[in-house]
Design a protein that fits this description.
This protein is an alpha/beta fold and about 375 residues long. Helix content is about 40%, strand content about 15%. It is built from 17 helices and 11 strands. Helix 8 (about 170-180) packs across helix 9, helix 9 runs antiparallel to helix 10 and helix 10 runs parallel beside helix 13.
């Protein structure tokens, strides 16, 4: 069975009739893209973003768990979890669940799409055949550049080995922490501040790496700013391995106001608080994931663990939100009463509140799922 969900895509992608100047003559092009979307990461989101740019509306098909198990092994996330995260992506207009592994012309016609989108890499099915050969021969395939540097396989390896090798160390993180102390390092002003910081450093980060990072942040960022009178809501955390608990709490946080800012702690802070080899994803990866969620308007990169009075005033924050599973409970082993309250200032101002995401899933539980699959 195919189930379809409808959404309004990110407003940043302009209406086709307006942008092309063709009035009522132009027929809106609908693009179909499918995938497993297991352990959603910035590579998935960048693929979705690029696919959305190939047309005017994007229909995303989430492959059934049975089809995934047959073709490449059982998924870690349940179908409903993968669907819910796909629905929360700001570049998605419609979601269809339980689709087959190989797209067919029948599916394209059924969902009223003009083309199928896929990366420029070759996708093979369980029999080693090109999964898109039918669409390719029919002239219905459009391609985009595959995102290098991250994959589900890579993340699975990190989860299994829990290695620190994927963390960025040294000057890059220390520079990010230094310039985020005032709480004003957001996705819209990170480029200029990072370049200024590293140009004056005696241990400069290679320029190409920096430009790649800032370019991608520009692509993912909405570029929005709170308008006069907007109620600004703030929530922070590690947001490591994006899951439905994150999606739901971000949705509920956004519902409390008009503009949602998400603070994302840097790698070193999370590792100090949580121990082991956390976080699984580095700060750049986690920032891009959060920026892909339709409820998020802005992020603070390398947000301080303890929210300061100056940060509240500088960002004009009206509401500070925390989940029922507090970051103190999740990230430290000390009893709560022995810890320094990260929201002390917000509580003094009377702007702090807790909300329940209605989902208790954690990164540790995802690791446990993976361990059961690989026994």
């Amino acid at each position: 069975y195919l189930y379809v969900f409808f959404f309004q895509a990110e407003d940043g992608i302009r209406d086709a009739q307006e942008s092309r100047g063709l009035g009522d003559v132009y027929k809106r092009q609908r693009i179909y893209m499918d995938g497993c979307f297991d352990l959603m990461h910035s590579g998935h989101f960048n693929a979705i973003r690029q696919a959305r740019g190939l047309g005017d509306q994007l229909v995303v098909g989430v492959i059934s768990s049975k089809e995934i198990a047959r073709s490449k092994g059982p998924p870690i996330m349940e179908l409903w979890e993968r669907v819910e995260i796909a629905r929360a992506c700001k570049w998605v207009d419609e979601v269809i669940e339980n689709v087959e592994y190989n797209p067919t012309l029948e599916i394209i016609e059924k969902v009223n799409c003009d083309y199928v989108a896929h990366g420029d890499d070759l996708a093979l099915d369980a029999d080693g055949n090109d999964s898109y050969h039918i669409c390719r021969r029919a002239g219905k395939l459009r391609t985009f550049k595959r995102t290098e540097g991250i994959s589900t396989t890579d993340i699975v390896g990190r989860l299994l080995l829990m290695t620190k090798n994927h963390h960025r160390k040294g000057q890059e993180n220390s520079g990010m922490r230094k310039i985020s102390e005032d709480g004003n390092l957001t996705s819209t002003n990170i480029v200029d501040k990072l370049e200024q910081e590293f140009q004056t450093s005696s241990e400069r980060v290679p320029k190409m790496k920096l430009l790649n990072t800032t370019k991608r942040i520009r692509q993912f960022s909405s570029g929005k700013e709170p308008q006069p009178g907007d109620k600004v809501v703030y929530i922070d955390g590690s947001f490591d391995i994006l899951h439905v608990g994150h999606i739901r709490i971000l949705q509920k946080a956004k519902a409390l106001g008009d503009f949602l800012i998400v603070g994302i702690h840097d790698d070193e802070t999370i590792n100090q608080k949580k121990g082991s080899n956390y976080p699984v994803l580095n700060i750049q990866e986690r920032v891009l994931n959060v920026l892909s969620v339709r409820y998020v308007d802005e992020v603070v990169i390398g947000a301080p663990w303890k929210l300061t009075f100056n940060m509240i005033k500088n960002l004009n924050i009206s509401v500070v939100v925390e989940g029922v599973l507090t970051k103190q409970k999740e990230h430290t082993t000390l009893p709560t009463h022995l810890q320094d309250d990260p929201y002390e200032e917000a509580k003094k101002l009377g702007i702090y509140q807790q909300i329940d995401s209605s989902c208790s899933l954690t990164t540790e539980q995802i690791v446990q799922r993976l361990s059961l699959i690989h026994i």
